[in-house]
Amino acid sequence: MSRLRGDLIERALGGPVLWGGLACLTAFALGPFLWVFLTSLKTRAELYATPLRYLPASLTVANYIDAWTSPLTPFSRFFANSLWVSSVTMVATTAIAVLAGYALARFRFGGRDVLLLVFLATQMFPAVLLIAPLLSQWHALGLIDTYQALIYSNFSFTVPFTVWMLVGYFDSIPRELEESALIDGCGRFGALCRVVLPLAAPGVAATAIFAFVTSWSELLFAITFTSQTEMRTLSAGLLFMVGQYEIQWGQLSAGVMISTVPVAVLFTYLQRHLIRGLSAGALKG
Amino acid sequence: MREATVAVPLARPLLSRRARQRLSGYVYLAPVVVVLGGTIVFPILKAMHMSLYNHVLIRPQEYRFIGLGNYARLLRDETFWLTLWNSLVWVFGSVCVQFLGGFAAALLLHQSFRGRGFVRTVTLLPWIVPGVVVALVWEWLYQPNYGVINDLLFRLGWLKERVAWLSDPALAMPAVIAANVWRGVPFFAIMLLAGLQAIPDEQYEAARVDGASVTQRFVHITLPMLRPIIIVATATRVIWTFNYADLIFVMTSGGPANATQITSTYTLLMAYSNLDFGYAATLSVVLLVIMLVFTVLYLRITRGIESVT
User: Fold this and answer.
1) Which of B41, B95, B114, B280 could serve as B271's disulfide partner, Cβ 3.0–4.6 Å?
2) Which of A137, A263, A284 sits opposite B46 (nearest CB)?
3) ipTM at complex level
């Protein structure tokens, strides 16, 4: 009898409960985005209509064009800034972290364990903690309103995470492969470039993209270390737009979509690798 | 025909092999040491130094050494104590609901059904979009006159008049926590899903053969097997949420009347809006100490788990 009841519960869990739950989950995750997307396609009159109109009667891309070309909040410029800052951060972070990760995974030297701990601990460091000292540091070096200030500051969160992840990837590659390359006359660096990197390529690519995505999302450094409109990144530009006289929700929604789509696309590629990395170590974000 | 080769003894290197290896290790680490020294270590030392000065950027004539004056001010600052309490509410509220929602989501996403890949990707979206985007999306949803939340509640008849979610002192904190929950559920979902995937199917099969019900299987297999990952994920999330300033900073700037002011946004406001670098640095040092305590606890916990599994 209780067996029968158990079967019933299991069938309910596999059927209606599962589908109902999935529907709720999808609506919960996607609903707010959908609403902003609809907003970005509405005309001004429809946006502020009472009672609220959920679906736009006529689709318009005017908000996107306005946001992209507006002289006050030029999203084309913000986009280019974000792209440049995030790309340079990604490339430099990867170069630095590959060297460090390889050394930590392969060489034995004093202070190795302490360094590993430091990399884990700094991942927990909040950006707010660094705002005041970094601002006065960049100010003293004359780096306010430069890309360098943003790129250097981004290292503070991209580098520790990337090193930590790469040590794990390099550790999982058997040493024998390199040793035969070393015997064949490759130097350490040659072995790293020709043997280890090709094998670790998927992992390195995933961490590089993660560095790009986190730099793309960065807000606090971007608003503190830049003051001119043409130096703002997308995140800073969005916030700047809110600060203007009256919030233009149509344009703002278009800006939100412009900042979201690139990371969403990159992330679908990342997802598989991230789940593996996540279970292996801590993660910021 | 082969050429004959003659063995020539190699010149003895200047340094022993071990010493060279050790040295090259440091060469590989040099860039990372320079970068983190310049962006983390030096700034933190600088913050400690700055915290001993009266240093307000817009009043340079008052710049002078005041010893522990900023720390005395901190102890007397009622807003600071309020922000600590608010941080507690913010962290506890956010992490609890995120965990429950994320756990439910992970259990759903672990089942096999058509279109699973798509649903998984979609569910994770709120977690990867920029923080400022999350804040603005929710600000628009909460908007009193044209926001969809008020409108839906109105149509359902649950609201008699429009609510200003973010400017009501009693509602602002729950409102920002709800936005943070939306952002954090995917994090727990992805972590716990990874944990669920690591549990061997045989265990469930064996329990099923022995006649264990769904609830029994959940309590005696799923929960104990997930314990390590639950602890790691929760600890990470607690630390991260405590530090997270973007969302509140954009949505309310800590208002109304400091109702949503947490310690990290307070620090940010002191540096960014008040340009009071001395006091901001003092708050940073205090945050750092709290962080270190958290991190040491976290490392203890994770170490313990590693030695068990």
Assistant:
1) B280
2) A137
3) 0.86
